[in-house]
Write a structure and sequence with these properties.
The chain is α/β, with parallel strands linked by helices. It has helices spanning 24-29, 33-57, 87-99, 110-114, 117-131, and strands spanning 2-7, 60-65, 104-107.
């Protein structure tokens, strides 16, 4: 087993990133704000699944998630359902993670997540799905 890992980006998978972002400024400029935000989040979660598949195939057990997977989740002026709406992604990612029993997904800037109760609840649900 390889005890090596990496953070957020893989250079091996072309055009795959779970770190696409949407700034608040660009969010405000967009006519279909929530649709654009939804597209970015779905793209990030789909790419995260691809990255985890790559990690499983290559026996990589350590990976650090990007803090940009769910952009604007903690922004005080942006309200949207980022917990239940994407639960199917969280469940699938958790199931894939369980294929490598000791895959460690580390969250950068976890203290920022602790500042927001809703985001914390989402992360707890996600982390529970990893071990159940």
């Amino acid at each position: 087993m390889k005890r090596l890992g990496y953070a957020c980006l893989t250079k091996t998978l072309d055009n795959v990133t779970s770190s696409s972002s949407l700034s608040y400024t660009n969010y405000l400029k967009n006519e279909n704000k929530l649709q654009k935000l939804d597209e970015v989040i779905i793209s990030n979660l789909e790419d995260l699944e691809k990255i985890i598949d790559y990690n499983i195939a290559n026996d990589i057990h350590f990976y650090r998630l990007s803090s940009k997977i769910i952009p604007l989740a903690t922004h005080k002026d942006v309200e949207f359902d980022y917990i239940d709406k994407y639960q199917n992604f969280y469940d699938r990612i958790g199931e894939k993670n369980n294929q490598l029993q000791d895959l460690l997904i580390i969250l950068k800037n976890f203290h920022h997540i602790l500042k927001n109760v809703l985001l914390l609840k989402m992360m707890i649900k996600f982390l529970i799905s990893l071990i159940v």
